[in-house]
Specification:
The complex is a heterotrimer of chains A (221), B (204) and C (238).
Chain A: H1 2-17, H2 23-40, H3 44-65, H4 69-76, H5 79-84, H6 90-119, H7 124-151, H8 158-166, H9 171-186, H10 192-219
Helix pairs in contact in A: 1-6, 2-3, 2-6, 3-6, 3-7, 3-9, 6-7, 6-10, 7-8, 7-9, 7-10, 9-10
Chain B: E1 2-14, E2 17-28, E3 32-36, H1 43-51, E4 58-65, E5 68-70, H2 73-77, E6 80-83, H3 95-105, H4 112-122, H5 137-151, E7 155-159, H6 167-182, E8 186-190, E9 200-203
Parallel strand pairs in B: 3-8, 3-9, 6-7, 7-8
Antiparallel strand pairs in B: 1-2, 1-4, 4-5
Chain C: H1 3-9, H2 11-42, H3 53-83, H4 86-118, H5 126-147, H6 151-183, H7 195-237
Helix pairs in contact in C: 2-7, 3-4, 3-6, 3-7, 4-5, 4-6, 4-7, 5-6
Classes of the chains: A mainly alpha (221), B alpha/beta (204), C mainly alpha (238).
Chain lengths: 221, 204, 238
């Protein structure tokens, strides 16, 4: 287990020391939450109806921001080679990096969400469900994003390509995440949270294997 | 105990370019093999193939572990000490922290005294608490050597081990390679300079 | 089990076989599409939708082929990863632009069909939204191919992406349907077909299928020739 946690810990430390920590993602998230009302007007009734969806989209975009660097830095400086011959399997290494990414991006976004929900006039129950849906759903954003990150290694404009290939694949998360908030707003359970949890669980479990395949592909280079 | 590394009719291909064809050689425990050749001849690619990063277009590589043959590239990787072109050092981590990380990653966690002893060996004692961004190229290489020693792997694959090092540094590399072979390890090095061991060399 | 397939998957053999078959395929495509269009125009105007039902004969086969093309890419990608066969790589890449075009055609015709029926050129109904997402997936797939220089690496990366998409697309479709029923109610584009519409539809579907296969084979042949040219140029440069 120690090699796994060694890599996870290193990535976390790196995100703070060299990546600005969660600041970038949090800042972007908060900016989206500020810009949308500026775009659609301050009517809290309207904002509370769209808040769940807007905040979910904002969270996904914020989480994607730092994903293209997930493997890139280690690829460029040769660390990936050393990780590849270490006792850690590439799948476990991918899982460690996904976990570190979520802890430094998805989780902080989730923790900020209740504050932003306030800005959209979401009632308490909806706010809570937004928080829970992000908590459960952001891991799969990191995980599926890692697959994309592993495929674009070494590309110069990879950062632009990544959202293009990842966002369509993440629509179920957005739909069911926002659906969870809708259910809370209407007081009518609609099963969204359960489906989101299932999608997230399956996606997070399977992604390290696919991301490892993508990394393997690029190790040859 | 790794007893030998054998390559049989190996073809090394990068993209659509065949760099090496039909290469065969054997290196036994305690031996070193120098890979020589012009830049772009395929030395690095061959090393990456043996390390298991690059699949062989043809032929195979076998690592003999006593009575067992290890042919799977990823299994092979677990016996390899890799010293690549790039130093794989994070700018914001101190020398000591880097060693600590790699120790844990390779399942060989070090106590602080052990770390210092290692740094002593490569001549980086005074730099232990320095962030890697302040290291010179030669110092970065020395740290990479310390990491190589740390991983305690039997088969060393070295890509230009003498690069960026001064005379003392090169002597250090020579010593470490000689000692490794003396202990029964195998060394494969892509290099423009002689290893100084009276070893075989292969021209690509 | 697939030995017979691999015998013909040798690029040289493929070129020979496809070269022989292609003229017939092209002729068949023209004939079937011609018959299909004639049948479509001879259909009596629908009591409810008037002549706009015609667009359905162009729209439904288009969206069907859009999905079928992706299925083709997924199967080729599977062979690409498992067997590492160049023809699988080329075939997958060659199918993508046509899949994207069929998707775009489906979206445009769906939009045109919707105008007289719904009053707007676009509604966020389940079918149109799903296919809009499919279009993005096609574009992303083609972009990934173009972005990676190493052909073999590009093929593998694109294959991985295609297979991840193949697993995700049913989930995406389901989630969009769910989303649609949550917000709007039943999809507006569904509805039964009376038998008089069935024959033109089937013929058009066949025609589209033949069109896809013809264009696809042509594109594969072009790509194989291009690769040979590139290989020759590289050999000359060395």
């Amino acid at each position: 287990m120690t090699p796994f946690f060694a890599l996870l810990g290193r990535d976390l430390r790196l995100s703070v020391r060299e990546g600005g920590g969660a600041a970038l993602a949090l800042g972007f998230f908060a900016l989206v939450a500020t810009l949308v009302p500026l775009g659609v007007g301050p009517d809290l009734v309207l904002l509370s109806k769209v808040g769940g969806g807007i905040l979910w989209v904002g969270a996904v975009l914020a989480a994607l921001l730092s994903l293209d660097r997930l493997f890139q830095a280690d690829y460029e400086d040769g660390s990936l080679d050393l990780i590849a011959v270490s006792p850690l399997s590439l799948e476990a290494a991918a899982a460690a990096k996904i976990a570190a990414h979520w802890l430094s991006t998805g989780l902080p976004l989730t923790l900020l969400s209740p504050l932003l929900a306030l800005m959209f006039g979401l009632p308490l129950a909806a706010s809570l469900m937004l928080f829970l849906s992000l908590l459960v759903g952001t891991p799969v954003v990191s995980a599926v994003g890692a697959i994309g990150a592993s495929l674009i290694l070494g590309l110069r404009r990879g950062g632009l390509l990544l959202p293009l290939i990842m966002l369509p694949l993440l629509t179920p998360a957005v739909i069911f995440g926002a659906g969870t908030v809708s259910a809370a707003l209407n007081g009518m359970p609609n099963g969204a949270f359960e489906i989101l949890a299932a999608f997230s669980f399956a996606g997070t479990l399977l992604s390290p294997f696919v991301a490892a395949a993508g990394v393997r592909l690029n190790l040859a280079g | 105990m790794i007893t030998s590394l054998t390559a049989e009719k190996l073809t090394v291909q990068r993209g659509s370019r065949r760099l090496v064809e039909g290469l065969s050689f054997t290196v036994k425990a305690g031996q070193a093999l120098a890979l020589e050749g012009a830049n772009g001849a395929g030395k690095t690619s061959l090393l990456r193939l043996i390390a298991g990063f690059l699949p062989a277009a043809a032929g195979k590589v076998t690592l003999r572990d006593g009575a067992t043959d290890i042919c799977e590239p990823e299994e092979r990787g677990k016996h390899i000490g890799w010293l690549g072109h790039h130093d794989a050092l994070k700018a914001s981590f101190t020398v000591s922290e880097q060693l600590a990380f790699f120790g844990k990653l390779y399942g060989r966690p070090l106590r602080p005294e052990e770390r210092l002893a290692l740094l002593d060996e490569v001549g980086l004692t005074r730099q232990a608490e320095l962030p890697c961004r302040y290291l010179s190229a030669g110092q970065r290489r020395r740290l990479a050597l310390a990491r190589l020693l740390l991983t305690a792997r039997p088969l060393w694959l070295l890509d230009e081990p003498f690069a960026a090092l001064d005379i003392a540094g090169k002597a250090l590399v020579g010593r470490l390679i000689a000692r490794h072979c003396g202990q029964g390890g195998i060394v494969l090095a892509a290099t423009h300079e002689p290893l100084g061991l009276g070893n075989e060399s292969l021209r690509l | 089990m697939f030995d017979w397939l691999f015998r013909y998957a040798n690029p040289a053999r493929f070129m020979g076989l496809s070269g022989a078959v292609l003229p017939w395929l092209a002729a068949a495509t023209a004939v079937v599409l011609g018959v299909g269009l004639w049948l479509s125009f001879s259909v009596p105007p629908d009591y409810q939708q008037g002549m706009t039902v015609l667009i359905l004969f162009i729209h439904v086969p288009a969206v069907t082929m859009a999905a079928a093309a992706y299925g083709t890419i997924a199967v080729c990608s599977l062979f690409s990863l498992i067997n590492r066969h160049i023809l699988a790589d080329v075939a997958a890449r060659a199918a993508a632009p046509f899949g994207a075009l069929f998707t775009a055609l489906g979206l445009i015709t769906g939009s045109l069909w919707g105008r007289p029926t719904w009053g707007t050129y676009w509604v966020w109904d389940a079918r149109l939204t799903s296919f809009l997402l499919l279009l993005f997936i096609y574009i992303g797939y083609m972009a990934l191919w173009s972005a990676i220089e190493d052909e073999v690496k590009a093929a593998r990366a694109a294959a991985i992406l295609a297979l991840v998409g193949a697993v995700d697309i049913p989930i995406i479709h389901y989630s969009v349907e769910w989303w649609n029923t949550l917000h709007q109610g039943e999809s507006l584009l569904s509805g039964g077909f009376s038998p008089v519409f069935l024959w033109p539809l089937l013929v058009m579907m066949l025609g589209y299928g033949l069109l896809f296969v013809t264009l696809w084979l042509m594109r594969i042949r072009t790509e194989i020739v291009n690769r040979r040219a590139r290989a020759l140029m590289q050999r000359d440069a060395a």
